Amino acid sequence: MRFLWLLLLMPLLAFVPHKYYVSTTDMHYKVEKQQVQLVVRVFTDDFSLALSNYGKDNISLDPDGKSFEETTTIISSYFKDHFNLYGLPKESSFSFVGWEYKQNKTHLYASFDNVPNVSVLKWSNSFLMATFPEQKNIVILSTSTTKKSFLHTKEVNYAQFNF
Fold first, then answer.
1. pLDDT by residue for the chain (163 residues), tens digit each?
2. Neighbours of 16 (CB within 10 A)
3. Fewest CB within 10 A of the end CB: N or C in the chain?
């Protein structure tokens, strides 16, 4: 009898939604420009919730939400707090370039400037992890000679690349 119930429930269990929490980051190290350029892609609904938790205010990334300037300020602050490069000289600086709303995805653009030729690049990416503990962030590092991917999780949120 149990077997019969299991057979009847199996097709129904196949349609239970399972939410995945993943972001992707393209990180380009441009030695000639002394710059690390970043493009982060996150799901808009997840990022809106994370920003709302971060700023303690309800934030919607759709065009009818807060003013573009106010939202940009919050996103810039969130970016600076959740994506870090380590071991950079004091002259290095973070620049938030901007963001684009693309319905179910939001693209964020930033750079670290005045990054000299380094032998090791170290970073962490904790985007969305405070809101979604099962969040996974994939970072794809591109240099003039190589391309390599790294996976960041709540348990392992640090990576480094040796040149």
1. 554 444 454 554 444 454 778 999 999 999 999 999 999 999 999 999 999 999 888 887 866 656 778 889 999 999 999 999 998 989 999 999 999 988 789 999 999 999 988 889 999 999 999 999 999 999 999 999 999 999 999 999 999 999 8
2. 6
3. N
Rounded alpha-carbon distances, angstroms, from residue 149 to 12, 14, 115, 142: 36, 31, 21, 9
- pTM, to two decimals: 0.84
Contacts of residue 31, Cβ cutoff 8 Å, sequence gap at least 6: 117, 143, 144
Other C-beta atoms within 10 Å of 40: how many? 23
